[in-house]
């Protein structure tokens, strides 16, 4: 009995061992499969991460290269801008120096023109004073025709004396004089000349507007030049345009001279009559550009002919240039 029980016990233990071995084998297979599966998954994940890392490194390298190139480009651009700024500064300094020299020259010219204007004003005043004295002297001489008659009588006396010497010479010299009747005729032309001069002066004075007429000398009836015309229209035009005007009679016609005192710019306008139904014209000529010598437009330096209807346009352009540079 004991042997039977021991043998049965050994069989059970062997069976148990075999079962345990089979179970262990199954567990090991399962473990091996799971391990293989996990390793494959990890390899796959590692490969994916490696690909991503490589891509990231490549992108980073490309970005670094791009940034380096951009940095070089910006550095060169900064250098170019610095050199350009330096050149601009140097050119601006040169221009500033040139403008300062020009300003000094213009100031000197302006000073010289101011002195010249003052000198011309003084000369004009002296000329007006001397002209008034000269005209006054001429009026006194014209108002005493008896002196001319006395001179004519003396001339006739000399002619009669020379008649005794040579008859041929006497005929030539008696013709303008003659006897006492001729003497009276010689005195009369001087009176006629005096009357004609007075009447022409009075006629010219009467043709002027009332505000522009000169004072008539009541004693001799002559136009007294010592009292210049005080023309309201002239003052009005000077205040409107901002220039001084004066008139001069020339062979071509009436010439109007205009001058801008602060700049020294002056020009003349000559009145030219046109035949037929054509309207009169003005001829513009530049006398002096003054301080506008460098900035004046080309048309101010040329001779221009324009009709009287274009006067507003002409003076508008002149006033624009004057206001722009003064």
Structural summary, described in words:
This protein is an alpha+beta fold. The protein folds into three domains: 1-141; 143-226, no CATH class; 232-324, Aspartate Aminotransferase, domain 1, CATH 3.90.1150.80. The protein is 68% helix and 10% strand. The protein has six helices and five strands. The protein has helices at 2-142, 145-165, 167-174, 180-207, 232-241, 311-324, and strands at 244-249, 254-260, 265-272, 281-288, 304-307. It has a five-stranded antiparallel β-sheet with strand order 1-2-3-4-5, covered by helices on one side. Helix 2 runs antiparallel to helix 3 (167-174) and helix 2 packs antiparallel against helix 4 (180-207). Mean pLDDT is 74; it is low at 142-157, 159-207 and 214-229. Keywords: Coiled coil. Residues 229-323 form the DUF7806 domain. Residues 17-126 form a coiled coil. InterPro entries: DUF7806. Residues 135-181 are annotated as: Disordered.
Secondary-structure map with pairings?
Blueprint: H1 2-142, H2 145-165, H3 167-174, H4 180-207, H5 232-241, E1 244-249, E2 254-260, E3 265-272, E4 281-288, E5 304-307, H6 311-324
Antiparallel strand pairs: 1-2, 2-3, 3-4, 4-5
Helix pairs in contact: 2-3, 2-4
Task: Name its key features.
326 residues; alpha+beta; Aspartate Aminotransferase, domain 1; 5-stranded antiparallel beta sheet; 6 helices; 5 strands; 68% helix; 10% strand; DUF7806; coiled coil
């Amino acid at each position: 009995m004991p042997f039977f029980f021991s043998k049965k016990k050994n069989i059970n233990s062997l069976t148990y061992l075999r079962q345990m071995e089979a179970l262990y084998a199954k567990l090991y297979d399962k473990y091996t499969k799971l391990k293989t599966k996990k390793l494959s998954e990890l390899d796959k994940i590692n490969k994916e991460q490696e690909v991503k890392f490589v891509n990231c490194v490549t992108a980073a390298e490309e970005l670094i290269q791009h940034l380096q190139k951009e940095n070089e480009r910006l550095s060169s651009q900064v250098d170019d801008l610095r050199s350009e700024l330096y050149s601009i500064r140097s050119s601006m300094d040169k221009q500033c120096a040139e403008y300062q020299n020009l300003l000094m020259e213009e100031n000197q010219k302006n000073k010289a023109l101011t002195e010249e204007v003052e000198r011309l004003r003084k000369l004009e005043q002296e000329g007006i004073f001397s002209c008034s004295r000269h005209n006054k002297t001429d009026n006194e001489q014209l108002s005493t025709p008896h002196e001319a008659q006395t001179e004519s009588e003396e001339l006739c006396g000399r002619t009669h004396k020379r008649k005794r010497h040579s008859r041929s010479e006497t005929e030539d010299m008696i013709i303008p004089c003659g006897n006492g009747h001729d003497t009276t005729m010689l005195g009369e032309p001087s009176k006629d000349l005096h009357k004609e001069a007075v009447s022409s002066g009075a006629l010219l004075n009467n043709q002027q507007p009332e505000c522009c007429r000169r004072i008539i000398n009541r004693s001799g009836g002559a136009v007294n030049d010592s009292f210049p015309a005080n023309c309201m229209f002239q003052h009005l035009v000077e205040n409107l345009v901002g220039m001084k005007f004066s008139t001069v009679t020339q062979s071509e016609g009436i010439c109007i001279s205009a001058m801008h005192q602060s700049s020294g710019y002056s020009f003349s306008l000559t009145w030219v009559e046109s035949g037929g139904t054509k309207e009169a014209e003005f001829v513009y000529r530049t006398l002096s550009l003054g301080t506008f010598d460098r900035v004046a437009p080309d048309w101010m330096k040329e001779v221009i002919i324009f009709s009287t209807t274009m006067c507003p346009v002409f003076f508008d352009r002149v006033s624009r240039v004057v206001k722009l540079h003064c």
